[in-house]
Amino acid sequence: MCNIPPRQIFNRRSSHAQEGYPPFRTTITLPEFGPYLADNQTDKKGRVMTRAVAHYLPREMAILGLVEGVLSFTAICFIALTMDTSLAATGATTGASVSFSSEVGVALSFTGLLGALALTAGLYRPDVCLDLRRVASGGGVAFLMVSSLVLARYAAVIHVPYDHLILLAELILGWGFAITTVRLVHAIALRRRPLARRVLIVGDPAQFTRFQSRLSSRPDQHFEPVLLQEKDLSWDRLRRSRVWGIVLASAAESTGMAALLDCKLRGMRILTAAAFQEVYLGRIELDTLTAHDLLTGTGINAGRMSNAIKRASDIVFGLVLLLLTLPLMILTAVAVKLDSPGPVLYSQQRIGQFGKPFTLLKFRSMAANAEAGGKPRWAQRHDPRITRVGRFIRATRIDELPQLVNVLRGEMSLVGPRPERPHFVEQLIRAIPFYEQRGYVKPGLTGWAQVNFPYGASVEDAREKLSYDLYYVKNRSFTLDIAILFATIRVVLKGEGAR
User: Fold this and answer.
1) Measured on CA atoms in the order 355, 359, 363, 369, is the torsion positive or negative?
2) pLDDT reported for residue 32
3) Domain residue spans of the chain
4) Where are the alpha helices (H) located in 121-216, listed in sequence order?
5) Tens digits of residue pLDDT in 162-191
6) Distance, CA of 326 to CA of 323 (rounded, Å)
7) Whole-structure pTM value
8) Which CATH number fits domain 28-47+196-283: 3.60.21, 2.60.40, 3.40.50, 3.40.190?
9) For 9-42, how does the pLDDT look when each residue is reduced to its tens digit (9 = 90+)?
């Protein structure tokens, strides 16, 4: 185990400070025109939603969702009114008085359900929209579920004429055809790239290559990086090249700053590399991070009311999930016991908020003597220590369900950075700047890093995950928590990132 108390680990300065460097890195300051060019908070033109939700649902996807929502709402209202009018004319009844307001309420409920199912299936991610097979499978399941509920609404009708059943089927098929047409048009538009946002990178080729790799890690945001010479930094040239925005990847003095200022005054989006990654990629660039950046975040400055709402949500949703998953947990306990010798539950010390240690609960997924050598190890792909049942419950995250008890105790939250073991915390604080700052918030059952980055098993992986964890620490909100919970369902169903 770790030979330094957890509280001391958390308050310990990083190795960078110990070696004589300042504990926080200095801010990259833009040249003379920097304050006028860089927008380090948000891009008002680039989003139609709050920043937290926008990272999960980009603007073009929000437009698609709005079109499909209006289309589905209109279709369900039309189906309901047509069927009720037709049935009333033949003397059939649904057993309840029908009014326009009630039909609108039903249509809103069904539309909301369809949207939630589509979000859960990841159908509003541009990379998924390009895969027609995935759209057909995910969208087909969601549509069948909602259309079945529409059909069930008329199940109470006695002696429904055959021609009315045909009419209902035709209306539902027409609704499905309209949704399919919208999806096909949207997919064709994405393939021809009119929705791709061309981003001009101002910097040397090495910076361009590094930034290009960052963009390639988030294909769902659909950015296309371009590199132009400084002599080409004119408003007319950028407009002809269909440049969507400019990212300042270099802090060096540039002869093109006057041209950039002219572009900014004409309405061009211009952001620093750090601001762009935070606003559009949902991550914090550790190389340029300062203490000031974290201190000014909305998540760090959350008040008592916000914290109270989060705690109340944890208790309510935690209790509901515990009751709903109790039968599954009983079956899992039996399977774990029958599969291999050893206890059903596995308890392990983890580091919680502000460095406070707590005992984390999990279903045992490894052999009882998995760490017989006494040294903690990260789980690897095809790890031989994992049991047969353990492989399944890790892939489906069922092994994490006992942590609902930790949530109810107040040691964890439903959403937050995943808690680490003291041994790894000591190691990572020494290797990665700002690693201890992820402990400003309670650890979570799921988190922003978990839905954006696969399982990490190295210091480099931990550094990459930290960029997402610190984004959550800085920007946490109720809407971001909801987006993470929706994304978690998709990740669990697809088995992404599990080891």
Assistant:
1) positive
2) 37
3) 28-47+196-283, 57-191, 304-494
4) 126-129, 132-152, 162-191, 205-216
5) 666 677 777 778 888 888 888 888 777 766
6) 5
7) 0.72
8) 3.40.50
9) 334 444 444 443 333 333 333 333 343 344 444 4
